[in-house]
Amino acid sequence: MRYNRPELDGLRLAAFGLVLAFHLPDYLPLAAEGSWLRDALWTGAFGVPVFFLLSAFLITELLTRERDATGKIGVGAFYGRRILRIWPLYFAVLLGLTALEHLRPGFGPARPDQFAAFALFYGNWHVALKGWVAGPVDPLWSISVEEQFYLLVPLVLAWGGRRAMGWLAVVALVAAYGTIWLYARHPVAGDNGQWTNGLVQYQFFAAGCLLSILLKGRVPSWAWPTRLALALAGLACWLVAVRVCGVRSWDPQSPSAILALAGWGLILAGTVAVFLSVLGVRADAVPAPIVRGGRISYGLYMFHAFGLSLVFWVLMPALDRYAPGLSTSVPGRAMGVILAVALIVLLAQLSFRFLETPFLKLKDRLAVVGR
Prior knowledge:
mainly alpha, 14 helices
């Protein structure tokens, strides 16, 4: 059996583009803080929830199709597939950054407890409780959240099918908004760890699971104007969450519990809207380069913070010796962003070709429903 949706590869690439846009104000003086443009760029952080929802939808879809076709779910095979997909690149990056930390401090985990947190996939909780570790390694928190959620998904589906999975998703939603309410009732100054709290982020996995269960294999066949309107509505939800409700990724501090709940609700609604605006687009309408970009999006995400850090922390200061002020001028920093993006794409391409592909071939041997 096959389940292949190229439009979702395009959505993966778009989600990475959002994450990259979120980081741009750190390197380019694009807009003043408090401006509409700055807030719009900050909504790029919500590309991470898009990844979460998309991943949960696909995992639920593949596992339910496997259960319908065979009457069971191979739990061990599922874990094997996830390990072969996630672990090779993940540990290559983690170990590489740890080694680099000894040569250039600030690139990776500097203490054993930091390394252990990411190596054992509770990095998100370490960040939530003790703060960020280092720029290039910090994005790995999201992989910890994914791995934690997927410990339960195959077991629940194998035991109780769609109904049990639906109830788990509802429990995850209740837990998410209960946690958000608690954060809002007990605010602290600065980054309070809410963004990397798994209980908060599980809402997007829950939404992905519920969409798969409710759609039952169907996909919307909307016209392009409808899809565009839905995507714009989703982006508008995100912007209102940031600008009006005060919910930001690194510092989701809202003036009140009502605004906090409303803000996160808008983020969830926007994520669902963006996803549905893409789901069901015909395969022949998705350009091949977009599909290819989506397939290397895991590498793009894993390398993006490293590429930006390497260019702006190491390369640009070195070039200042030959062109003083290059690293502080707007044209120089724009050139730095272009170089960083080129480096990120190159590393992702090399990773997919030489590191990920051999393991993906092994993963396909464990698949009941292929992609």
